[in-house]
Amino acid sequence: xSAVIQLIHRGGIASAQGFTAGGVYAGIKTASDxxxxxxMVVSDVPAAVGGVFSQNKVLSPSVTLSKRRVxxxxxxxxxxxxxxxxxxxxxxGLTDAExxxxxxxxxxxxxxxxxxxxxxGLIGVELPMALVRxxxxxxxxxxxxxxxxxxxxxxxxxxxxxxxxSTQIDGREIVIGGCAKGSGMxxxxxATMLSFVTTDAAVEPSFLQQCLKSAAxxxxxxxxxxxxQSTNDTLIVLxxxxxxxxxxxGGTPAGDDFQEALTYVCVELAKxxxxxxxxxxxxxxxxxxxxxxxxxxxxxxxxxxxxxLVKAMIYGRDPNWGRVMMALGNSGIEFEESxxxxxxxxxxxxxEGMSIAYLKDAVVSSMSEEEVRIRVRVxxxxxxxxxxxxxxxxxxxxxxxxxxx
Length: 405
Description:
alpha+beta, 9-stranded mixed β-sheet
């Protein structure tokens, strides 16, 4: 039976029991109203930890350090900054990441090895450690500081991305909350994203890692804005067990319910990232069904949602279904063209690989909605998957043509 998942109003990274968070403006980014660029999340007890990181061959030392510490299976805190990626700066990058976690550890009164780090922003610039030293101790940690933390990790995001849910597992209410940043340099295998998730559930560490990887594959690894994969992708979950109860393990109803709730949180955050793509005017949802396997359905959905021509088609409200067929054929999956059906916002426009009679004005009108849904049926297989992206507009080019200046 599926878990009953309830959204928590204005919930976020500090909604679960035993977590506090906060953010401050340290001067890493250009000053503006309500801008933050340095934040922390802290658990009041040791927490099981899982992490998923960028697959880029060029990695920020912040990622390298967090990967190493996540492998220990336990953590207490996360420190994060925006405005500087701490990447491609030589050995100094690791030195600075270690110092920043040590400063955070002193502020939270925990061991430095229990602190993880995330960085995002401009590549090729050293962390301004003088500003970090001066301001990190000013972070006020509180159970209502989640929004300040969420804003502290934003770069070109237009708004903070936060969500929290509650659900019943083994008769106990558990909460899962999180936040994310990212609106450009986003492509499957994660994005230019930081995402942090907390829960007061007690979860066996290896199962927690398994759950996070599964949730990432369904959510963050199924979004695309511009086809570029970042050097700093970091997804971390902390589970501190403050809700009580037995440790949740795999192969159990409790484990299934936890997986479902964690995946829900990650999907909601991933969709917000796609919706907030740089210059975007539409959230695009592509579902491929009837594929021979989940793997093939995911390949096809990601290929369609990441196609620049499909993105341009959405922006122009042009029901040029040939571009969908092109992207599907370029995905490498096995299918028969004569079995393909295509729907735009549930208006049937292609049947058995050929155009059918439909009211073009109705499709154009439906593509004016904030969300455009493309559904592609490729056969009668069991594989089904959904990917999310956005349209490609002049705004993307303008924003990225002067990013460093």
